[in-house]
UniProtKB/TrEMBL annotation:
Gene3D superfamilies: MetI-like
Topology within the bilayer: Multi-pass membrane protein
Annotated SUPFAM superfamilies: MetI-like
Entries under InterPro entries matching the protein: MetI-like, MetI-like_sf, Phosphate_PstA, Phosphate_transprt_permease
PROSITE patterns given in the database record: ABC_TM1
Residues spanning the membrane: 27-47, 53-77, 89-116, 136-167, 179-204, 210-229, 261-282, 332-354
Family statement drawn from the similarity comment of this UniProt entry: Belongs to the binding-protein-dependent transport system permease family. CysTW subfamily.
Family matches, as Pfam families: BPD_transp_1
Keyword list, A-Z: Cell membrane, Membrane, Phosphate transport, Transmembrane, Transmembrane helix, Transport
Name of the gene: pstA
Function: Part of the binding-protein-dependent transport system for phosphate; probably responsible for the translocation of the substrate across the membrane.
Protein name, as recorded: Phosphate transport system permease protein PstA
Main localisation: membrane
Amino acid sequence: MTTIEKTTATAKANSLTSGRLPKATPWVVLAASWALMAVVFAFANIGNPVGDFNIAATVFLGTVVFVLAIYVISTIVEGQRKAADRFVTAIVSAAFVVALLPLISLLFTVVVNGLARFDIEFFTYSMRNVIGEGGGAIHAVYGTLLITLAATIISVPIGLMTSIYLVEYGSRSRLAKAITFFVDVMTGIPSIVAGLFAYSLFVVFFGPGISNGFMGAVALSVLMIPVVVRSSEEMLRLVPNELREAAYALGVPKWLTIVKVVLPTSIAGITTGVMLAIARVIGETAPLLLTAGYTQSLNLNLFEGNMMTLPVFVYNQYANQGTSPDAAIARAWAGALTLILIVMVLNLAARAVAKFFAPKTGR
């Protein structure tokens, strides 16, 4: 190897001497900045509960330190021009982090406070005959899953068929425009209105005083349907017309083209839209208070008796703390953490389903 080749190889191996920072430098500086701020706020929080640790300020100030540090380091090593580019990139990244601060703070607070009662008893016992400490939320977990499943079974066929009509059949007809208008109106209605609608509907047929899980499912479906319609409609419109025309050219009927070509092509986006609709309603409290009510016992029958759900459980534990306020608050935090984990698991499952059913583009 010649002297020039050795010099070139050495310069590539040591990027600092060649006027370039290693690729991992921004990540290392960011991690170091956050760690520094975490140590500072940890010392400031000595003697206080872990939940009082200011995670939002830690992340924000750590990001500010990162922006300044990466600019200074880049100026010394790479020069003013490259440093300006890194500075703007860091500012854009910092804006993204600032937008995530409420979510970061929320997750940190829920996890720290919810872990105290995140135990076996919480997932195996209900609140029946429990006044002070102890008890669990198994009745609320089952109620949430059953009511949300029923609402999904009601909403997805209606929403999907509506979107198919709007894209494939209605086109620019007056009926399609009217449906689109009313779907947009339904998207913005308050959740309490959906609960009042479901309650009034069942009162007309069954009389006053009725309350069950199926009423809650109907109320949630009113909120889910417009989300499913709009998301599915956009996904169906993304399917290239060439695919439809190719199927028609082969003599395939329109309904079979929709079933065999259009829906499989857009199934990934439709699944994501359905999960967004579920995430939209699974945490609703007001409509379920009016329809499903609340109970301290386990009820698996959607059509008879009150049924507890996790949002109502959290509200009830916070509003009616009983003889042991600390235990009730701990159960409320654990219920909130359980609800977040259910949404996360459902989203992961939706991603897996979308990836599995997505059209394969390779050979």
